[in-house]
Predict the 3D structure of the following.
Amino acid sequence: MTAYRTIVVGTDGSNSSYRAVDRAAALAADTGAKLLVVCAYQAPDPRKVEAAQDRLGDDVGYQVVGANPAEDTVRTAHDRAAKQGAKDVETLVRDGNPVSVLSKVVFERDADLLVVGNRGLNTLAGRILGSVPAEAARKSSVDVLIVHTVS
C-alpha cells in the first residue's frame, strides 16, 4: 500500500472538527501528503440578510452572513495544521451541503483520503436524520478516516 498523497479534511469550526483537522494534519506531516482543509457553508437567504441589516444596520449586517465565518474557520484550521507539522496545506471554502462539497473536492483534487470527525454519529438526530460522517463514509469513493473526536 502506498502512502496517501492528497488528504481532504472537513471542518465546521467546532472543537470536534478541529480535532479531525489535527489528526489529518499529523497524517499529512507523516506521509508528506498535501492537505486540503474544506469548510462548507450555506448561502444566506436574502430575506434574512435584509432583516439582519434592518436590525443591525448596514455597517454590521454583513458580519453575520455569508462566507466570512467559514473563512475564519479555515484560517484557524490552517494554523492548527501547521502546528501539527503539515507542510503543504490549502484551504477551501465552498457553498453547499457538507457531504456534497467534500465529495466534489475529493473528486476534483484526486484525493485518496477523506477525514471527518465522528460528531453526530451517536446522537438521536444523527441516527434519525443521518450525520455528515456517516453519509460521507457511505458516499465516498476513497478511503474515509472517521476520527473519534467526541464520545
User: Anything to note?
Assistant: Residues 59-65, 120-130 have pLDDT under 50 and may be disordered.
